[in-house]
Design goal:
The chain is mainly alpha-helical and 170 residues long. It is built from six helices and four strands. Strands 1-4 form a two-stranded parallel ribbon. The chain has a two-stranded antiparallel ribbon with strand order 2-3. The longest helix has 20 residues, at 149-168. It is elongated.
């Protein structure tokens, strides 16, 4: 029994549109070390992390977002995995639309506050190496006064924009 399939079928009979709410890069607030089936327990390198915790072996919870854990938007394996899930939804259910929620990096404190750089997200091994290969510097070494800081911001923005474009084509 597939309740979503029945729900969409019955809604369409009544000319009701159904959109799927998809939490894109957010994976919940359960600590992955307590759940061996968690996507971050299975693929720990997919976890997003802050500058402060870039060298930690444990996934970083977002303190400003109820202790939630997030995937790394720059990681191609993460993007491919999410794209496969969305394709499965489209092929199996034919919804009228998909709302991409949490289609962003986790929240950091505002740049005007002390500690901004340490609350910034995206300092995964993949992103750092990719950025360094393009710009010659590890973003961990950057500060907001560094001339490459804006490129680091743009790099992360581009990861989200390119993923959205990729999903839009589906």
């Amino acid at each position: 029994f597939d309740p979503l399939k029945v729900w969409i079928k019955e809604a369409h009979k009544r000319n009701i549109k159904v959109n799927i709410w998809f939490e894109t890069f957010y994976v919940g607030n359960q600590n992955p070390s307590n759940d061996p089936k968690s996507i971050l327990a299975v693929n720990p390198s997919w976890a997003n992390t802050t500058k402060k915790n870039y060298d930690s072996n444990s996934p970083t919870p977002s303190l400003s977002e109820h202790g939630g854990y997030f995937l790394d938007p720059s990681n191609p394996d993460v993007q491919e995995f999410l794209e496969c899930l969305i394709k499965e939804i489209i092929c199996n259910y034919a919804p009228d639309g998909i709302n991409l929620d949490y289609i962003r990096y986790p929240q950091s404190i505002a740049a005007k506050f002390m500690g901004y750089e340490l609350s910034n997200w995206g300092y995964t091994e993949y992103a750092r190496e990719d950025f360094k290969s393009k710009y010659g510097k590890d973003p961990v070494e950057l500060s907001s006064s560094d001339e490459l800081w804006l490129m680091w911001d743009k790099y992360r923005q581009d990861q989200i924009s390119e993923f959205v474009l990729r999903i839009n084509k589906l």
